[in-house]
């Protein structure tokens, strides 16, 4: 018998590995994507058009766009309450 009851349809370790893959490759990147969309919308950018551009990049490119924004775009603005570095 597998690790999870057969009533759920996952009876073997291979099935559990597939379920783990679905979670890691599907759900976690989507959570990261949503978090980055929220961050773009909350952040005040130095150039007003940057917010629109970053929202489009993150939404249209999904995980790749969120990763690009995480490494490149966050430095182009500040969250409300943070000091702007001039």
Query: What is the count of structural domains?
Result: 1
Residue-averaged pLDDT, rounded? 84
> Spatial order of the strands in the main sheet?
1-2
Strand content: under 5%
Helix segment count?
2
Morphology: elongated
How far apart lie the N and C ends?
63 Å
Given as residue ranges, the uncertain stretches (5+ residues, pLDDT < 50) are none
- Summarize the biggest pleated sheet: 2 strands, antiparallel
Q: What sequence of helices (H) and strands (E) makes up the elements? A: HEHE
Fraction of residues in H or I helices: 55-70%
Query: What's the total count of β strands?
Result: 2
By helix and strand content, what is the structural category?
Answer: mainly alpha
Determine Rg (CA atoms, Å): 19 Å
Describe the structure.
The chain is mainly alpha-helical. The chain has one domain (9-78). It is 65% helix and 5% strand. A two-stranded antiparallel ribbon has the order 1-2. The chain is elongated, with a radius of gyration of 19 Å.
Chart the SSEs and their pairings.
Layout: H1 13-42, E1 44-45, H2 48-73, E2 77-78
Summarize the entry for a quick read.
This protein has 86 residues and is mainly alpha-helical.
Descriptive labels:
5% strand; two-stranded antiparallel sheet; elongated; mainly alpha
